[in-house]
What does this fold into?
Amino acid sequence: MSAPDTEGDTPRKDQRLGEWQQLIANGEAAGRRLDQWLSGQLGDLASRNRIQSLIESGDVRLNGKATQAKQKLASGDSI
It folds into this structure.
């Protein structure tokens, strides 16, 4: 898995949902729920419901570990 292209603190979105991507939570993500933040990052690529399903199935990992949609993020977290 390669690191995403970045512009400032905001990871650039890979427009191909379904391929492995790595996003790094920036300072604005701190304290936000994982599913809410991912929904904002992925925009029209996936609904929040789809994102929650991916998290619950273990397809989305937080710092390399399975997690829950309600997990709060910290700056620098790897998703």
